[in-house]
UniProtKB/TrEMBL annotation:
Pfam families reported for this sequence: GIY_YIG_3
Domain GIY-YIG intervals: 1-234
Organism: Salarchaeum japonicum
Annotated protein name in UniProt: GIY-YIG domain-containing protein
DNA sequence: GGGCAACCAAGTTACACGCG
DNA sequence: CGCGTGTAACTTGGTTGCCC
């Protein structure tokens, strides 16, 4: 099966990447003082699920940034939005309206524990007033607890910001390759995977915390580019 | 069945603060 | 000052749904 083989190759390449960067990181241990590449692609893994025929951790989300013309956001800018606030008013929390990943994880927590009454505005709108943010703080903290403990890898891809960037290409194809959406599952997620409670069918069925590209075909050639980019990456 | 508003996904920016 | 950070709000592109 061709897809199975390409997935194996992807994981193998990511093992290479892991050696190159000196191991997976967790957001709880990260700061902006670390030597992040300016621009890149990130891969989050589940801490407690493994691939079917291997002891490798399963990938759970792929993302990137600087996909619009002229963008100046860095890889770390994006990662810290997922991590959330370390101190200040929303200490230990974060802003799920600036990070879809946070939004989706929180939403799944809400669904799983039937907390819709407590969090009627979760994910609604692109901003919220202080009072509402404080009402949502406890859930933001749960989300932070979850996200900050996910091991992740990052790939240095430092081309110009644009929708056609190599970052966007690698992200899109990795998602399309790994997605189990409307396909025979490869490395099916565990029954207790939080994403099974997502409101999004694409998340539930793809097995990834991604919505875009889960229903697309992938271009096997992207793995060659990935291999080349791994050479461009170094440790933090 | 084209136009348009509403909405959504995901990332982006602006600006103030604190600290070495 | 420069950098990392906190916080609020925006942009772009895509989809949906309605209404003539």
């Amino acid at each position: 099966m061709e897809r199975q083989r390409d997935i194996d190759r992807l994981y193998h390449l990511l093992e290479k990447l892991e050696e190159t960067v000196g191991g997976k990181q967790k957001l709880k241990d990260c700061t902006g003082y670390m030597d992040w590449p300016d621009r890149g692609v990130y891969f989050f893994f589940t801490p407690d699920e493994h691939r079917d025929a291997d002891d490798q951790l399963r990938i759970t989300r792929i993302g990137t940034h600087a996909v619009s013309e002229g963008s100046s956001t860095s890889l770390w800018d994006r990662l810290r939005t997922h991590r959330g606030a370390k101190r200040g008013t929303y200490e230990g929390g974060g802003n799920h309206r600036g990070s879809v990943f946070r939004k989706r994880v929180g939403e799944a927590f809400v669904e799983r524990a039937s907390l819709n009454d407590e969090y009627p505005h979760w994910g609604k709108g692109s901003s919220a007033k202080r009072e509402r943010r404080l009402d949502e703080l406890e859930m933001e903290r749960r989300v932070s607890g979850y996200l900050r403990d996910l091991p992740f890898l990052w790939l240095n891809v430092d081309d110009e910001p644009s929708a056609e960037s190599q970052r966007a290409y690698i992200e899109r194809n990795t998602i399309a390759l790994l997605s189990n959406y409307q396909r025979e599952a490869v490395d099916a997620r565990a029954d207790n995977w939080l994403g099974n409670h997502s409101r999004s069918k694409k998340i539930r069925e793809s097995g990834l915390w991604n919505v875009n590209h889960v229903d697309e075909d992938y271009d096997p050639d992207f793995l060659d580019l990935l291999r080349d980019q791994i050479e461009e990456t170094s440790s933090v």
